[in-house]
Amino acid sequence: MTRQGGTATGEQRARVRAFGLRTRLLFAFLLVAAVSAGTTAALTYREARNALLETAQDTAVTSFRDHVQQTGFALPVLPGDDLDELLRNIARKGKPHPWVVFAEYGSVRASSGENPVSTVITPELRRAAHANPHGSFERVVKDGVPYLTIAMPMVFKASPDSVLPSGLVLYAVMRMTDEQVNVDALLMAGRDGALPGLAVSLIPGLIAARSVLRPVRKLREAALNMGSGRLDTRIPVRGSDELADLAHTFNESAGQLERSVRELREAEERARRFASDVSHELRTPLAGMLAVTEVLDEDADGLDADTARAVRLVSAETGKLAVLVEDLMEISRFDARAAGLNADEVDVAEAIRKTLDNRHWTDDRIRTELPDGIRARLDPRRFDVVIANLVGNALRHGGAPVTVRLRTEARSPGPPVLITDVVDSGPGIRPEALPHIFDRFYKADAARTRSAGSGLGLAITLENVKLHGGTIHAGNRRGGGAVFAVEIPLHAEGEGAGG
Amino acid sequence: MPRVLLIEDDPSVREGVELGLRRRGHEVRAAATGEAGLAAMTEFRPDLLLLDLMLPGMNGVQVCRQVREQSQLPIIMLTARGDDFDVVIGLEAGADDYIVKPARPEVIEARIRAVLRRLDDSGPGRPAIVVYGELTVDRVGLTVTKAGRPLALAPSELKLLLHLSAAPEQVFSRQQLLEHVWGHSFHADARLVDACVARLRGKIEDEVGSPRYVQTLRGFGYRFGPL
């Protein structure tokens, strides 16, 4: 059972490990490093990119404006070779990169390139060009290529501070690939700088995780040791941080636990030894008394009535006392774990029949369902005590007829079990008594001051069943009547007869 | 009626058991110490020794060994403990059976009768003297010799050997042997059988480690042979 549990907890542990302390610490370190590197890189990139692009833009816009203003256009503008020549002139002076110049005047379209109309210029720029006499520009990315487009309207100076649009607008389209390359290079630099940074940040992360994890692992081992009963486990305290405090606290608690457990054990040991000593001491006088009870019983008839009653009472009580002491001894042996199992392979039905025969429970008060051929490894003496006690109880406190039923049942996981049911026909066990029915000296019937037994019968039965690695359950049938079910694992192999 | 020598140091037990057995017709001689008991042996000539294990001075186990050195007198131990250790030591010392105190006189007497009972296995047509390997068993004279030398077997050992060899190669469970050889009707201690088998092997086997005559069948019990 524990082994199966072990695999389960192992898987669980592996699952927990995936999000364990080490992983979380590393994640935290990586996150911090990533955030700081990322932020730095992003800010640097943005600033550098803007500086690059703005420089290029300003140069381009200024030079275009100058060239446009220095060029004389005859209005109205007519399409033709003159206009194309003018545009080509301006185009040759493109700065910082070559540009293509377009002219739009009413329905007239001209350009320094092959196409009279640019595909890059957006309607927004056209609108802005007519609105803003000082010219406007726009960055456009088309088919993955970045362009700077500049619109420059031709204006008349109507007065020193007012201008009139002439209707002619010149456009310049400039490829910005070099800037893009530079910007990409910036991005690469940022990334290439951040990744080693992240990798390097793993090292302090690992070191920090290890410094936390090692004490934690030590603590875990120590706790496991404590759990497995080694209460003298202590952790070496190093340094003076919180983990050292934890270790210190653990050690103190462990010390207190050890002390109280030792005291408890000593007290228990004393109580056990006392019970054992008392029952041993009682045996010798009882042996003398029990040896003469027969004499008392036989001669009581010849005595006067009072003396005879007294003599019979002494004799009867001596017998009960002997049983009680015997049971006390047995319980003491269980408590001291001195009770051994002398297992033998027996025919179970045969063993139960023998138990019933030996106690003369052979009349119609007892019904049996004992299939032959079931063999199990049992301690015959202890099994006899178990069956005799259950049947005796059923007859005494329950009611005839009592049924003893034997069967086997497959159990998965684990070996098949041997089940012995003892069912009586009495009123059953009161529900409030059920949890205590196996307690020592527990009286299920408050009115019954003293049973015929010692009050230890069921407690001994339970111990005997446990010694076989089995379990016992008490319950009630639906139709009334108590049911005691003993389950003992069927062991196929084991130690045979001694020698 | 058998003559019983009782060695018991506690006066009340001594007196009680003596009284109980005498009422049942036994002739009882009681001694308070092992030494006194051994001294009374030759003069009283008991049929059986009831021996308390816990004795002052010379303890029951020593008395048991000393008696076994000289005679095959049936010995029943009275043990105030019933604890495994005592019982095993007493059985190894050569006791034939044991009774846990306190015990009623009828129980004590039943044990005495069982120990003294002769195994009645002289069936018709069965030869009195049978030879098994080096062992010669006289089932009528109740003697066993090994390679011509007579063996000193305690009553329980002899009965166990006779019972096992009466049906060679048949397996007997420890429970069956307890019933047939010791007359225990209740489930008694199977270690009684194991201890007796160990003592018997020590006397009849060449190598106790690999027994030839009394063989163990794990999980089932014991059998005689096959040789």
Topology:
The complex is a heterodimer of chains A (499) and B (227).
Chain A: H1 2-18, H2 21-70, H3 81-92, E1 99-105, E2 108-111, H4 123-131, E3 136-142, E4 145-159, E5 162-175, H5 177-227, H6 242-299, H7 305-335, E6 344-347, H8 348-358, E7 366-369, E8 375-378, H9 380-398, E9 402-409, E10 417-423, H10 457-467, E11 471-476, E12 482-489
Parallel strand pairs in A: 7-9
Antiparallel strand pairs in A: 1-2, 1-5, 3-4, 4-5, 6-8, 9-10, 10-12, 11-12
Helix pairs in contact in A: 2-5, 5-6, 6-7, 7-10, 8-9, 9-10
Chain B: E1 3-7, H1 11-23, E2 27-31, H2 34-44, E3 48-52, H3 60-70, E4 75-79, H4 84-92, E5 97-100, H5 105-116, E6 129-132, E7 135-138, E8 143-146, E9 149-150, H6 155-166, H7 174-182, H8 191-204, E10 214-217, E11 221-224
Parallel strand pairs in B: 1-2, 1-3, 3-4, 4-5
Antiparallel strand pairs in B: 6-7, 7-8, 8-9, 10-11
Helix pairs in contact in B: 6-7, 6-8
Protein described:
The complex is a heterodimer of chains A (499) and B (227). By secondary structure, chain A is an alpha+beta fold. The longest helix of chain A is centred in the middle third of the chain and has 58 residues, at 242-299. Chain A has helices at residues 2-18, 21-70, 81-92, 123-131, 177-227, 242-299, 305-335, 348-358, 380-398, 457-467, and strands at 99-105, 108-111, 136-142, 145-159, 162-175, 344-347, 366-369, 375-378, 402-409, 417-423, 471-476, 482-489. Chain A starts with a helix and ends in a 10-residue tail after the last strand. In chain A, the strands form three sheets. Chain A has a five-stranded antiparallel sheet with strand order 2-1-5-4-3, sandwiched between helices. In chain A, strands 7-9-10-12-11 form a five-stranded mixed sheet. Chain A has a two-stranded antiparallel sheet with strand order 6-8. In chain A, helix 6 (242-299) packs antiparallel against helix 7 (305-335). The radius of gyration of chain A is 51 Å and the shape is rod-shaped. Chain B has helices at 11-23, 34-44, 60-70, 84-92, 105-116, 155-166, 174-182, 191-204, and strands at residues 3-7, 27-31, 48-52, 75-79, 97-100, 129-132, 135-138, 143-146, 149-150, 214-217, 221-224. In chain B, the strands form three sheets. Chain B has a five-stranded parallel sheet, with helices on both faces. With 227 residues, chain B is α/β, with parallel strands linked by helices. The termini of chain B are far apart. Chain B contains eight helices and eleven strands. The interface between A and B is large, with 43 and 47 residues.
